Amino acid sequence: MIDYLAVLSIFIGVCFFFAGSVGLLRLPDLFSRLHALAKADNVGLAFVAIGVAMLESDLINSLKMLLIWLLVMAASSVSSHLIARHALRGRKPNE
Amino acid sequence: MNDWLLLSFDILILFILLGLAWLTCNTKEIKRGVTLFVAFGLLLAVIWARLKAPDLALAEAIIGAGISGALLLKAMRDYTEQTSLSSETSRFYVWGINAASLALFVLLAWGLWHALERSDGVRLAENVLITTPESGVSHPVTAVLLNFRAYDTLLELAVVFTAVLVVLAMGTKQRDFGKGEPILIAMVRWLAPILIVTSGYLLWVGAHAPGGAFQAGAMLAAAFILMSMTGVRVDSMLNDSSMRWLLVIGIGVFTITGIVMLLINGHFLAYSKELAKMLILLIEAAATLSIAAALTLAYLGGMPKPQQKTQSAVKIDKTEEGTS
After folding, report:
1. Where in the sequence is the domain holding A52, given as residue range(s)?
2. Chain A: residue nearest B77 by CA?
3. Which InterPro entries does this one have (chain B) (predicted)?
């Protein structure tokens, strides 16, 4: 039972990643691309991490998945914010 | 079924890796090339993990993708006027480099084939696994790096040290980062302590699991680099002479240990068996500090100017007050 739930969760996560990638490729400008990418990736990674954590029997390893998700979420939301802010100011990102 | 899926996954990432390598070399815009190079490094880390070499995967992810990417981006920032490739790079050079790469590939492939097919069947790996318990640590990779071939590791540290000497000789530090975005400062405030603790963990765990001085040192450097991006002058926390001490402490401790062991045991770097674990940990701790200092200095592009020290110390205090 829990295996099916895990697979379902990973599948949902992959769908989010897919949507995020399509958004990155298809949306017209930087801001909407960032929007699609950051949100889809955070939620997608959350579902994948939950799925993998369910498959893992060791509690410590499951908690590590949670930690990975939190770190990636912090990094990706902050970097999206920084990219968007630099673009908004009309500066080059490497300045 | 499972094997078949894994095989197709491996083939897929292999082709993506080759594609990324091709794009990295052939892109006209340097910024795009650097981004592709970082992606290449991350994918290479995944491949090392698939080859069941977690030590290499860790090192590639931290050093290959993380620190090298940061170094390249910093170089681009400091030399903005030179960031477009000249389009008239001579065809002669391009084909020369291609031919040299191809020759290297053929040589390596021949070497691998020779090693696998033509050898007597005695593998070093088996000998390593048999003698690992005598090395003082239980992780075979650390046993090889810090005991069986400690001399090579000492020379590798010397290479890193020499590279940083060249960086220092090239001139003074490039311009500072301004005070960072508030949200970046807030994140680094959380992240830097985690990175430092993780670095210590990697150093300690290297005795019995994947980890070790190079990965730990690079992670410590990552913490310093992040802090410098938020406008905290990392170098001002340490003055010039303590930075120099940090740079040499790894190679110094390593060499002194080697000479002491030469006097006691008659061979350079031949550890006494009962002391081996402690000595390896001592050397690794010193090497971690040196590698972190070296990579941070390479990123900053040189020693700080001494007269700015007091000024920037005040700047840190202001940053502390401003956000707390």
Report:
1. 2-88
2. A94
3. CPA3_antiporter_subunitB (IPR050622), MnhB (IPR007182), MrpA_C/MbhD (IPR025383)
Which of B181, B189, B197, B198 is the best mutation test for A, with the most CBs of A within 10 A? B181
Residue type (1 letter), A24: L
Instruction: Provide the number of structural domains found in chain A.
Output: 1
Length of chain A: 95
Answer whether residue A26 is part of any domain: yes
Model pLDDT for residues B78-109, shown as the tens digit of each residue: 776 655 555 556 778 878 888 999 999 999 99
Nearest CA in chain B to A72: B191
Q: How far apart are CA B71 and CA B298, in angstroms?
A: 8
pLDDT score of B162: 92
B chain contacts of residue A95, beta-carbon cutoff 8 Å: 77
Nearest to A82 among B73, B76, B184 (CB): B184
Tokens of residue A46, six digits:
């959350």
Which value does ipTM take for this structure?
A: 0.80
Do the beta carbons of residue B230 and residue B185 sit within 8 Å? yes
In a domain, A41, yes or no: yes
Do B181 and A71 lie within an 8 Å CB cutoff?
no
Q: Where are the domains of chain B?
A: 1-80, 89-121, 138-324
Place of tokens 């990973």: A10
- pLDDT, tens digit (0-9, with 9 covering 90-100), for A1-52: 888 899 999 999 999 999 988 988 888 888 888 888 888 888 899 999 989 8
Looking at CA atoms only, how far is residue B191 from chain A in angstroms?
8
Half-sphere exposure of B131 (CA within 13 A, CB side): 14
The pLDDT tens digits for B228-268 are 878 776 556 666 777 888 889 999 999 998 888 888 888 88
Phi-psi region at B301: left, alpha or beta (left = phi > 0; alpha = psi -120 to 50): left
Angle between helices B276-300 and B240-265 (to 10 degrees): 150
**Is residue A93 assigned to a domain?**
no
Distance from CA of A75 to the nearest CA of B (A): 8
Q: Is the pLDDT of residue B314 over 50?
A: no
Distance CA B174, CA B178 (A): 12
Whether A67 has its CB under 8 Å from any CB of chain B: the answer is: no
